[in-house]
Amino acid sequence: MLDDMVEEIAEENVVQVVTDNASNYVKAGSMLEATRPYLYWTPYAAHCIDLMLEDIGKIPRVRNTLKGAMFCNGYIYNHVGIVNMMRRFTNQRNLHRPAITRFATSFITLSQMHKQKNNLRKMITSPEWNNSKWSKDAAGKRLTSTFLQERFWRNIVFALKLTGPLVKVLRMVDGDKKPAMGYIYESMDRAKETIAASFLHKEEHYKKAFEYIDARWDCQLHRPLHAAGFFLNPELYYKNPENAMCAEVMNGLYATIQRLVPDLSTQDKIGEQLDLYQNAQGLFGNPMAIRQRDKRAPADWWSAYGASAPELHKFAIRLLGHLSLIILLGGHLHQVSSTRKASETSNCRRASRGFSLIDEEIEEDIGVSEDDGEEEVLGIDVDDDDADEF
């Protein structure tokens, strides 16, 4: 089926075939790469990152926190009277923010609960709660006990510090604002750096989570395409050329050139023209090109300013803009071409598998509201005293 779809579109028009991570798709993707030497098979990035969240959810401290939070959430939403009471204390805000994937939903719900920490505690210590029938049954007492435990709230922050940066990456790869190809490599590195910083680089707190992240990254997401996309993203390359010149990135770049460009003379021309890009010569050094490195989508930037390096220009647009992309999710095939709008591409992905991870209504990133007076759980502003609690 995959091979027939490639044949219909023409292999030279296909950059990659994307599937979810089911074992049968992995085998089919490997077979496709073997028979089609000038395209890539890659697993769907959002699915891979969601599996990282699932793995982190197996860490005992995180698993127990999720279990306690889901009990509280379930008990509240199973009683209309408690839901109405809660909304009076939370200014009509809900705890449950559904996303289509199970594990994203769980951690988003944790975040919402933490944002309402003070209001939830006010509720279960109020006369309205104490005089209600729910405060007297066993489950209601367990809810009260859980919300009054400082350890419960510390564990929520612990879980969100491990997962918040990954949810941000999920939001990026499944969203419409940025094409993921040029950003996912750097975004995963930054997510790990953020997690480590949130614990003041005390490795014992995040070592197991990093093992899970690295295992999924190395065997599923770490593809030459992503390294090449990072190198050819002007916003990221010119900001820190040293990072883009490391052996891992350069190996990925050259591997991608060799696989996507069958003609050897064209490969050599691209290699020569890389110097122009790296040294910002020709149109790459035009003042407008410099100003717009971080203002235009990478493919659009290359369309506007890549003419000084015609072969590299064509290759970069094909890679970053995806001349043609085949998506196989949930057993359904979809062709997505560069002529379709980003929103249409995203909607195709959502409809085919339901991997939309965060409601468009959620305006805030996963974190603690300023009103709570606590550290930002993504680890951007970590208070030393709070970090020591972990």
UniProtKB/TrEMBL annotation:
Superkingdom classification of source: Eukaryota
Annotated ranges, domain DUF659: 1-68
InterPro entries: DUF659, RNaseH-like_sf
Region (Disordered): 364-390
Any matching Pfam family: DUF659
Protein name: DUF659 domain-containing protein
